Amino acid sequence: MSIRAALTAGPFSSGRLLSLRLLCLAALLISAYLAWSAIRLQPVIGCSGSELIDCEHVLNSHWSKVLGIPVSVPAVGLYATLLGLLAFAGRPAPPAFQRLLCLVLSVGFLTAGWAAVWFIGLQVLVLQHLCPWCLAAHTCGLLLSLLALTSTVRPFGRVPLTCAGLLLAGSLAAVQWLTPVPATFEVIVPEYARGAAGSESIEDFSPLGAEEFRPQDSMQAVPAEAAPEAATGDSPAAEQAAEQFGPPTVQSRIWSPVSQALSPLVLSANLRPALSSLLLSPLVDEDEPEKRKVTIPGTEKPIRLDPADWPLLGSPQAKFIFVEMFDYTCPYCRDTNKSIRGAFERFGDDIAVIALPVPLEQKCNRAASGSGHAGSCELSRLAIAVWRCDRGKFQQYHDWLFDRTRTVAAARRQAEDLVGRDSLRAQMDSPAPGNQIGWHVELYIKVGSGTVPKLLFSGSSVVGAVQKEALCSMISREMGQTPAK
Hints:
This protein is α+β, with helices and mostly antiparallel strands. The chain has two domains: 2-178, VKOR domain (de novo design (two linked rop proteins)), CATH 1.20.1440; 184-248 and 292-479, Glutaredoxin. Helices cover 49% and strands 10% of the residues. Strands 3-13-12-10-11-9 form a six-stranded mixed beta sheet. The protein has a three-stranded mixed beta sheet with strand order 4-8-7. Strands 1-2 form a two-stranded antiparallel sheet. A hairpin with a 4-residue loop joins strand 12 (454-456) and strand 13. Helix 5 (95-127) packs across helix 7 and helix 13 (376-389) packs antiparallel against helix 14 (391-403). The longest helix is centred in the N-terminal third of the chain and has 33 residues, at 95-127. The radius of gyration is 30 Å and the shape is elongated. The N and C termini lie far apart (85 Å).
């Protein structure tokens, strides 16, 4: 009898206890799903993005992690612990145990509430995008803290409990605030470029000469003579051992034993492999001025691009031109786009960018892996269609696509507003935009495929999201001069 008399009921009423358990369970399930999505690098369901709602933007931001770990992971630990403690809250226990249990639960609930305030504030004030899944979990945290504050059982009063929860949540916020934004990119220099640094001539490391033309494994590649480069800090290897790469819409003037018979035809993809076995010789018009070329590193040898053949951001007369590969649905590509805009603000017309959409959707990219990036192919086709309709409108449309996550329907309406419905429809009904994307994919494979965004300079490639200052430093180094203010 004495032992039974020493036991007391749980600290919460049955109705309040049920509410606390349900809220903890809901928050636990949501946090577990977000943690699973973050670890698997999978997009969350039902959050494709709009003007305000953009889960990928929120979940891939700097604020979505603490010490490199997705914040949903410690959230799972918190709510799992609270749910486990609530299993004891409805049972009779000694008063000392009940007070300790009530203290730990109350501090945990208030920590969840203050953390919810912090993360909701970040979404509204800093990121300016909302994640419904995150907001649902944060709402559970706010309700838990409200139930804790209105409970009749408070062993230490409202103020001490509130301060304890604020201290714990504030520690999390302080760690996030003080953690520097990590470098999320890698600089890759191909072997032949590293070897070129100590070579006195191209023949020291490359069997190819400026006028040596050989069959190519890819039907997209046609050898061409060396031409003046954009100011990209080219090595001797890049200047002479480069491969000319151009889209199907640009017809090169070549001579071959069958050229007279085939000249009226548009060669199909099925015929190109057969023709790739022929040795082609360039026919150069001495009166025609040499075109400017941009050299980028391929996996096996440098590749030349003519800026006039590809979508371009900035002026074709820019002193320095480099190449960007990206996916319009990629949040890291969006971050890099902001950095490129910052570089334009700093360097002005001294720089330009060959902008190549490379959808990571398997529907139009045979090198893509995974099943994500839905709608990427169509967004890329729309961008190329705008470029083909009016090259002057391409940069405006490109930046608009990257302002936030865009749906295909919204992107089509914007494209129609820029270039006209009839012009856009004519392009989208033709195979040209899709063919152009196919050439982007082939070039993407030639430079190593893998992760985007990619920034391709003359002797190196930069893979991953690049911050503005880092990008400006790279450009200054490549240009060999101080950035224009």
